[in-house]
Design goal:
Radius of gyration: 34 Å
Largest sheet: 8 strands, mixed
Strand content: 15-25%
Order of helices and strands: HHHEEEEEHEEHEHHEEHEEHEEE
Number of helices: 9
Number of strands: 15
Helix content: 25-40%
Strand order of the largest sheet: 3-2-1-8-4-5-6-7
Length: 395
């Protein structure tokens, strides 16, 4: 239980610090201290000169206060993206500010567990270092190994020195291009200057709303219970933020496993849409017709003629689309019926169709068509058999 209480205290403590800074004045003394220190180095000085004005303009467009009072960073390994989210107050939802392309990647999906495994960590971290003289231009350090990593990783050599940095090369960090780390460095340094000492960085294996990524992770975890048990809480955290646009409280059990407070019920993503198919409510009309003439002087005619009948069939095809089975997007149905000597269409029979629900609904709809002008034989109306193809689900 120690680890659980420890991580709760850390998170609540950070929120309390942020809440205090949001109500108190962001003093010029605080602003000058950290930024002034960074300005003593050439690369941050040049970064501020290049990027600060544009970032201020972006904040104004998005109705955000500069510098950011609250900031959240999340990165997706498989999708090679890094997102920056910002908000003005503790209660309002985060707004997406920037998306950066992670331009190099090593290792596979899954957590980092020992020094030299070339793995990018996965889990819940925060920025704990600003390096203005990085070998990779500029860099922001992450607090790897965190409390979970110290339980689950190699006890002697879990690895370390994990950064978001420039240079577009990596052996286990999160690299973005130099002109992008410029922006991120200015964003985070400016926020730290006004009292934002805790900037969370969550690293996920995938973006869970991208089907290709979701399917790929599913294949990896299908027969790997250990990886699935580790990955599930990460998905919980992602889902929580997607719904509320607030950062979830994450706890750590004594065995090192993450637990997301108030996690949403787990619902599988990208399930096939179940179509609610209408059902026929009437019985087919069947007449006892003694004579069907093979040769007639005049064929039955739909009200309005051939053009009106073509329009009717097109509309029928659209109306029948909801009746298609889930696995079918379009079909050609063939129906036999009789236009009786009074012009009524009756005795419908499916020659080529799908399942019973589809066939019954097609007959029910076709029975609703208006009366025809009947066939003529020896100057008298007679019954005539018709065969019609109906195209369903194709525009």
């Amino acid at each position: 239980m120690k680890n659980i209480f420890w991580i709760i205290l850390v998170i609540l403590g950070s929120l309390q610090i942020q809440a205090q800074t949001s109500v108190s004045s962001f003093s010029n003394a605080a602003t000058s201290s950290f930024v002034t220190y960074q300005m003593g180095f050439q690369r941050p000085r040049e970064s501020f000169a290049r990027k600060e004005a544009n970032l201020k303009a972006l904040f104004e467009v998005k109705n955000l206060k500069w510098p950011a009072r609250y900031m959240y960073i999340r990165s997706f390994k498989y999708d090679s993206q890094l997102e920056v989210w910002v908000k003005n107050t503790v209660t309002e939802p985060y707004k997406l500010l920037k998306i950066y392309k992670v331009c190099a990647l090593v290792g596979t999906l899954g957590p980092k567990r020992f020094e030299g495994d070339y793995q990018v960590p996965e889990g819940f971290y925060h920025i704990n270092e600003f390096n203005p003289n990085s070998a990779y231009y500029l860099s922001l350090g992450l607090n790897y190994p965190n409390a979970s990593d110290r339980v689950l990783s190699d006890p002697v050599k879990p690895g370390g020195d994990i950064y978001i940095h420039g240079g577009c090369a990596t052996v286990g960090c999160i690299p973005i291009k130099d002109d992008q780390i410029d922006e991120l460095y200015v964003l985070t340094a400016s926020s730290k200057s006004v009292g934002l000492d805790f900037i969370p960085v969550h690293i996920f294996p995938i973006k869970y709303d991208v089907k290709k990524s979701y399917d790929y992770l599913g294949k990896l975890t299908k027969d790997n219970k250990q990886l699935k048990d580790f990955s599930d809480p990460l998905e919980d955290a992602y889902d929580y933020f997607e719904k509320y646009k607030q950062i979830p409280i994450v706890m750590i059990k004594d065995d090192g496993q993450y637990v997301v407070n108030n996690a949403l019920p787990k619902v599988p993503k990208f399930q096939p849409l179940i179509r609610h198919r209408p059902k026929a409510t009437t019985k087919p009309i069947v007449r006892n017709i003694e004579l069907e003439t093979a040769a007639v002087a005049k064929w039955p005619e739909f009200p309005g003629g051939t053009e009106a009948y073509t329009t009717y069939l097109k509309q029928l095809g659209k109306d029948m689309t909801p009746s298609l089975p889930d696995s079918v997007t379009h079909t050609y149905a063939q129906v036999e019926f009789i236009v009786d000597k009074d012009g009524a269409p009756v005795n419908f029979k499916i020659i080529r169709g799908l399942d019973k629900e589809f066939n019954d609904m097609l007959i029910e709809k076709m029975e609703q068509m208006p009366k025809w002008a009947p066939a003529i034989y020896r100057e008298k109306p007679v019954a005539k058999k018709m065969v019609q193809t109906v195209t369903v689900g194709i525009n």
